[in-house]
Amino acid sequence: MKLFVFHTPEQTPTDTRPDCAIAIDVLRATTTVATALEAGAEAVQAFSSIEQLMQVSEAWPVEKRLRAGERGGAKVQGCDLGNSPLDCTVDRVTGRRLFLSTTNGTRCLERIQSAQTVLTAALVNRATVSRYLHRHQPETVWLVGSGWEGSYSLEDTVCAGAVLHHLRQLMDTEHVITGNDEAIAALALYEQWQSRLLDLLSAASHGHRLLRLDGMEDLKYCAQLDTLDVLPIQTEPGLLVKQV
After folding, report:
1. Which of 33, 36, 29, 34 is nearest to 9 (CA)?
2. Torsion angle of C-alpha atoms 108, 125, 236, 5, degrees rounded to 10
3. What is the C-alpha R_g of the chain?
4. What's the rounded Cα separation, in Å, for the pair 216 and 22?
5. Nearest alpha-carbon partner for 28 in 93, 75, 77, 92
6. According to the model, what pLDDT value does residue 175 have?
7. Is a pLDDT exceeding 90 seen at residue 172?
8. What is the pLDDT of residues 12-36, one digit of tens each?
9. What residues pair up with 142 in beta bridges, in sequence order?
10. Residue 178, CA atoms < 13 Å, CB-side half-sphere
11. Which residues partner with 74 through β-bridges?
12. 108, 25 Cβ separation under 8 angstroms
């Protein structure tokens, strides 16, 4: 098993595809996906385009759908939700499909959707993702950060490092095979900050954006480690369900 970290979707190779690709958007799309599925959502369907989200979701009964749209950290007009995992309560999402479009995370999913296996990871479900990799041993794994509009995001890299760190513990070896320098750097970042994840997220540029939008509670939630035992897995392009 060889693991590669890519800071943004745009950095992924275009001439090959991995056995397993993992989208990471800690603030906040992949945290929201994990939370919604754990709370009982039927599925999460991701779109890079708000217009496509509206068109596809229109075919669903109102009582069976939730439209979640976010741009620049704020809820999109005409949607039921923004991109806060705190909105994905059991009462609200159980039995419904979440139609989701965000600034960065859903674009990342679109980029990697042709991989043999597609998962999503966040700090909240880090251990579950690591256990899946340990159990299935895919030959090549891409951990792909969503970034922010094409640029680097600190919180996605620390999450990739957290997955690598836990996988190394599960394998009881110091030698998880890293495929690129970014993977080594991600592991080092997590090892440096593992006891201060909220501080790291608060210092990150996207953390600053959320704080300007009164998002401290979201930051606290997204900085938690291993609080959800849920594995979002793609069953068709853009469609994520909870693996059972």
Report:
1. 29
2. 40
3. 16
4. 26
5. 75
6. 60
7. no
8. 999 999 999 999 999 999 999 999 9
9. 4, 21
10. 20
11. 71
12. yes
* pLDDT recorded at residue 105: 81
In this structure, what are the phi and psi dihedrals at residue 205, rounded to the nearest 5 degrees?
-60, -40
Confirm whether pTM is higher than 0.85.
Answer: yes
| pLDDT: which is higher, 74 or 163 | 163
How many alpha carbons lie under 13 Å from residue 227 in its C-beta half-sphere?
A: 14
CA nearest neighbour of 100 among 133, 155, 54: 54
54-70 burial string, b = 16+ CB within 10 Å, else e?
beebeeeeeeebbbbbb
Per the listing, tokens 């958007």 go with: 25
Residue 201, class by beta-carbon neighbours within 10 Å (0-12 exposed, 13-18 middle, 19+ buried)? buried
CB 76 within 8 A of CB 21: no
Token duo for residue 148? 């922010």
Alpha-carbon distance of 177 to 181, in angstroms, equals 11
- As given in the structure block, the two tokens for residue 235 are 């069953």
- 134: tokens are 């340990």
Instruction: Quote the CA–CA distance of 191 and 47 in Å, as a whole number.
Output: 33
In the block, tokens 């006891």 appear at 195
